[in-house]
Amino acid sequence: MNRKVSVAPMMDCTDRHERFFLRLISKNTLLYTEMVVSEAIHRGDKKKLLEFNINEKPVALQIGGSSPNLLAEATKAGEDFGYDEINLNLGCPSKKVEKNKFGACLMKEPNLVADCLSKMQSVTKLPVTIKTRIGYDDTEDYENLHNFISILKNTGIKTFIIHARKAILGKFTPKQNLNIPPLKYDFVYKLKKDFPNEEIIINGGITSTEEMKDHLKKVDGVMIGRSAYHTPYILAEIEKQIFNNEDVPSRQDIMEQLLPYIRDEIKKGTRLNQIMRHTLGLFHGQTGSSFWKRYLTENMCVRDADVKKIDHIMDKIKFNNVDTSVGQSA
Ligand SMILES: Cc1cc2nc3c(=O)[nH]c(=O)nc-3n(C[C@H](O)[C@H](O)[C@H](O)COP(=O)(O)O)c2cc1C
Description:
- This protein is α/β, with parallel strands linked by helices.
- It has 16 helices and eight strands.
- The protein has helices spanning 16-25, 38-43, 46-50, 68-81, 95-99, 110-122, 142-153, 174-179, 185-194, 209-216, 226-230, 234-241, 251-267, 272-276, 289-299, 307-321, and strands spanning 5-7, 30-37, 59-64, 85-90, 128-133, 159-163, 199-203, 221-224.
- The protein has an eight-stranded parallel barrel, surrounded by five helices.
- Residues 8-13, 34-35, 62, 89, 91-92, 131, 163, 178, 203-206, 224-227 line the site of flavin mononucleotide (FMN).
């Protein structure tokens, strides 16, 4: 599996529509789902929670939980639905998550995490990976992180995704936890030095292909979250600069290719804004971008949106207001 560049799991963002859209821009990046709680997979509608379009592949399913049995069941379900990797969330800091004992608070319980990972790996042939932080609260020494990773590595885990900032549990909101604790990339570089045979992926605050190239000199892969969501066309730049693939579609091509998908989804009962909200940033930095955003915001929530309406929206955008001749850069 190529994990040189991946798009991070993000709740309310990386749903199946976003992933379908991003895959039109980039063939080579690995895409992650939003976190799906193992308990929900156990009790809920598996098809609704896990089904995805085969064109999104490769896709990794991120799960959250701390019960080895439930996580194993979720892992098996993920394999059955066709995912390419199962990732365990050990980095989410929200209060709700902590109360239910999953996410970053599990960094306090490496042996429990090891039990979970062993059980998960015992039921699947897929790679099982983890995503974590460099520390939590006052525990932010490299030794502790090293020890945590060593314990998990002993279960057979080979890929570690590290969000290079600690989590402050209980005190900060999830949003503050994405911005306030400082990024410490050195911790991640040091992990790669100390675990040269393991795959170490760096995450947090990476917004340009230049930065990616620098990180890739020191670690095996980079994961980007918000920059992919807010400026999705950065994936075209990644195709060119990181994967040496010049054959990237224009922004207009992407929208043209998205249209049949939208038509199909609308017929199945999907609402227009469930798809189009992910495209708001497509024309970021281009002439007409603010028109695109405004027009979509005003039109995508209409209740009676049908295929005709979408065609009308597309025509209006295509022929009048977005100047596609001004370069392709992200
Ligand atoms: C809206 C949003 C939702 C997120 N949801 C998840 C999640 O479900 N699982 C997870 O491991 N991280 C989640 N994260 C954290 C991201 O995966 C990533 O680690 C973080 O945004 C830092 O990367 P960035 O600076 O490139 O955005 C979320 C972040 C955002 C902004």
